[in-house]
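Ticket opened by: R.M.
Priority: normal
Category: complex prediction / small molecule

The reporter submitted a protein together with flavin mononucleotide and asked that the result be attached to this ticket for the collaborator who will pick it up next week. Submitted input follows.
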Amino acid sequence: MPVTTAINYDDLRRMAKRRVPRIAFDFLEGGVDDEVGLTRNDDAFRKQTLMPHYMVDAAVPKLATELFGQTFAAPYGIAPTGGAALFRRGADLMLARAAQAANVPFIISGAATATMEDVAAVARDVSWYQLYLAKNRDISRDMVARADACGFSTLVLSVDVPGKVQRERNLRNGFSRPMRPTVSAKLEALMHPGWLVEYFLGTGMSASNWEKYAPKGATPDDVLDFLSSQFPTPSTWDDVAWIRKQWPRKFVIKGVLNPDDVARCVAMGVDGVMLSNHGGRQLDRAPSPLEVLPVVRDRFGEKIVVMFDSGIKRGSDIVTALSLGAQFCFVGRWTLFGVTAGADAGASHALGMIRTEVSSVMTQIGAPDVAALGSKFLMWGDGDLQRNARN
Ligand SMILES: Cc1cc2nc3c(=O)[nH]c(=O)nc-3n(C[C@H](O)[C@H](O)[C@H](O)COP(=O)(O)O)c2cc1C
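Result attached by the on-call engineer:
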């Protein structure tokens, strides 16, 4: 079935699930521990109600949004996702090209298969680099210099992977370093011959940005082992100061949830924070970023750019996050499902789908412009309609 027949997130998810073996799909979709974080992210959105304002002409809402001095076509972009080549050979570049064509930001993961130089060649205008610190900080220094040489506008430091976690679906499937698929995972993979051929004819999953630092002659698999020897390692405030000094353009910290951490980011001259719980993949009992967004926006919205990701599955989720005070949103799995299901066309279709949904919801609530979104479009959870007058 062509990927363009997918109507929504769930359709893309189903198509992606059919295409790849369970061992890959579980890595894509899964959370951590009991996976209550995934539900919490969903519930946080479901608790919100959008309040329509009729008799306003918002038939063709304007989605163009300025972020860090650059005008993007929409208030959302693609979050960094490592290991995407496991789902679709060449996925990183497919996502980058789709983002460039749609004029929305694309964040290349520090654990991507494509190199940052490859991404710069196809999507320099819209791409940001996401850094995972290495234990050997000389490697990180070099990566920052490479990102600078690539001309990326923004560097993102992800801080919410201070150590290894138990993703139990992965443990059950034998998805680990080194990879030890269980017999049942291997047998199940045989039901996906298209994926198997593509995977074994391609480079499989690697972390090409790290190749330069691995021992000479390292195979893609050796590079992954090298990455595992260097990462995860906790980022500290000293690292934040150190990177701030090296990086000349916009600097974003991804994965903060605690307002005190945001306060410190402001004090250290960080340009933006991305409130995120890593899509429920790191700390199962973490808050949903939607729960902390209003307080962060109230306290720091004038001092730092506040962005959001985790759990977005509908255009109305994006409109809700923007109305609660996020300046920009990012999606991880939505576009990953798209590219997994339908390669280049799937990545573009996912972005088009998001645009259609966001536009439609803005028309319905009477928001002619992204800049118009705010608390007046929400009915507060306590049912106090007076609070809609806040904005
Ligand atoms: C398969 C996968 C790989 C990811 N890899 C990274 C990564 O390399 N770096 C990072 O900062 N976040 C990573 N994330 C988290 C995303 O950037 C993002 O925070 C999350 O997917 C947002 O939630 P959503 O998938 O519900 O939209 C990954 C997420 C997924 C699903």
